[in-house]
Amino acid sequence: MLSSSSSSLPASFASNLFFGCLLTFNVIILTSHFPTGLSKPGTNTTQQRHRQLSYGYYARTCPQVEQLVASVTNQQYKNAPVSGPATIRLFFHDCFVEGCDGSVLIATKQGSKELAERDAVDNKDLRAEGFETVTKAKALVESKCPGVVSCADILAIAARDFVHLTGGPYYQVKKGRWDGKISAASRVPPNLPRANSTVNELLKLFNSKGLKLQDLVVLSGAHTIGFAHCKHFLGRLYDYKGSKGPDPSIDSRLLKALRMSCPHYGGNADIVAPFDVTTPFGFDHAYYGNLEAKLGLLSSDQALFMDPRTRPIVQEMGKEKDRFFQAFAVAMEKMGAIGVKRGRKHGEKRRDCTVHM
Ligand code: HEM
Ligand SMILES: [Ca+2]
Ligand SMILES: [Ca+2]
Q: How far apart are CA 330 and CA 322, in angstroms?
């Protein structure tokens, strides 16, 4: 059931929870409904123009950018499959703090007291494999198209690649994000959700980013792959909201298995559990079925089924994989447009994704 985090895939689960770990890789390719050209005409206030992204942004300056990134993501996925969940989560943490601008990639300056985003407590468990993927892809892209492609765009493309590589939809990625000039650890906590956030809190945060109820439920479906450390769900296992007992909305077999690996006190801090006990490595809609069966891992996951506002969306996504895949592609495009910067006034094009220009 559980395993310690390492760069290879965590070991398989205890048989009592091995609910048919059929690794299904039925991939549907979403045919793009969007033309690959420059952005929509008719929206030309200054602010909107700055924020516009397009599918063909690098058509002249680096037409092979997606192939270059793909060669790296393919290789990474073969060598270290956890690069998938790692990079998808990295993209989410980038977009929610200062917008999708590569701010999460900046390293704290040596000797500086001002910590960069990635050194914030909430970003400490972002896996190295996500950063590594971006660094490698950036190096390759720089060797072919120097000084052209932003780190933020590379992260957006790599995240999409991994959604597809793990079995999820393929969708086109809009590009044209510039990298940001600000990366401060202090900006992280107010802008990221927590494992014990209520639906109200999650909604408030997502709404503040221009995302809606449906986006919250659909994007949470990324928890169909990947793993979480015990500390994020320990409260549900032993002393839920001061009750001295477990969260009643957790399946008893899952509770037992999680308690075995995550003792109340003194457990190994490196132990992780899969978000999706059925297909932890496969990007599918099993996450939603799990929520209906009280198999959600985090309180914030299970809450989506408990709340009457989000439950119908959970049920809809659980019913049909294609519906989820389509909605996920749309929601990722929306998330990928949060706080986008264009131009030198607000942005930069870094050569090294970890340092400002
Ligand atoms: C809705 C609120 C959300 C909360 C409270 C939340 C919280 C978390 C937590 C606590 C972890 C475990 C980290 C660890 O222990 O290493 C995690 C992992 C993950 N999250 Fe979320 N998350 C949310 C939304 C999202 C979204 C919107 C995405 C992407 C679209 C996402 C993608 C992931 C992935 C892929 C992992 C697995 C990472 C890995 O295995 O390396 N999450 N999340
Ligand atoms: Ca950012
Ligand atoms: Ca899955």
A: 12
